[in-house]
Write a structure and sequence with these properties.
Blueprint lengths: L12 H5 L2 E5 L3 H13 L4 E5 L2 H10 L4 E5 L7 H11 L4 E6 L7 H7 L3 E4 L4 H13 L5 H4 L4 H22 L10 H18 L3 H16 L6 H15 L1
Parallel strand pairs: 1-2, 1-3, 3-4, 4-5
Length: 240
């Protein structure tokens, strides 16, 4: 995490104390490493399960706030696993772990209710940042979920984050208190771009193509910032 943004996205000791993990990994080495990383990050409560069915049983028996789960099918389809956990507790923070997020279709799990993802190999920084993002991030906007395809959804995610940052920067001109929101908004824009490049079909080239298309479409929407500017320019031309 960039140093100038660290202070805007952290979990306090009190917040960490209120978090309890269930780690769902079929590989014992990954389970042990995740447990060690979480304990070293001062998370006190970490439960384990070696498959999805055992995880559901433990979730019913124990108080859990966060689930880090293997994004591949172990003994039930992973989408079904995500939906079943949220049916038990809609407030759960679900984090998918994957060696290849694109191949495992992790973005689809995010649209189903997962809040974040970890890219293997597991590292202390990667796990802790994923936990913070999943805990602090806002839900995926409805406009993203209604997109026609994945690339459009990711382009919408980026443009919404950019628009939010632009609005906050505009507010800083009038309100001093708005300045403290800038690092957080900038970080989530950066994270949205990273997600788009990771999950877009066609990689970075596919992402850029989708982003350009979304920006062109947004300029034609009167309610958008680009649309309002375009409308004012046309009005001025007619008046002249």
């Amino acid at each position: 995490m960039p140093k100038n943004l660290e202070s805007s996205l952290v979990l306090t000791p009190a917040e960490k104390k209120g978090i309890s993990f269930l780690v769902v990994e079929s590989n014992s080495s990954d389970r042990n490493l995740l447990r060690q990383i979480l304990r070293n990050a001062n998370f006190e409560t970490v439960y384990e399960a070696n498959n999805h069915l055992v995880a559901k049983e433990k979730l019913l028996e124990r108080k859990v706030t966060h689930v880090i789960f293997e994004s591949k099918k172990i003994n039930i389809p992973v989408e079904e696993f995500v939906e079943s956990l949220l049916a038990i507790d809609p407030k759960l923070t679900l984090i998918a772990s994957s060696s290849n997020p694109q191949l495992d279709d992790v973005f689809n799990l995010l649209t189903k209710g997962a809040k974040g993802y970890i890219v293997k190999p597991l590292t202390h920084e990667g796990v802790e940042q994923a936990v913070i993002l999943a805990t602090k991030a806002e839900p995926i906007p409805e406009a993203v979920l209604k997109a026609k395809d994945r690339n459009e959804a990711l382009a919408v995610l980026v443009t919404l984050a950019l628009d939010k940052l632009a609005n906050i920067l505009k507010q800083t001109e009038e309100f001093e208190t708005a300045k403290k929101e800038v690092p957080r908004a900038f970080f989530f824009l950066q994270h949205s771009v990273e997600m788009a490049i990771t999950f877009c079909k066609g990689g970075e080239e596919g992402y850029l193509e989708a982003l350009v298309k979304e920006c062109i479409e947004r300029q034609n929407v009167p309610s958008s910032r680009l649309g309002r500017l375009r409308k004012r320019i046309k009005s001025n031309i007619r008046v002249a």
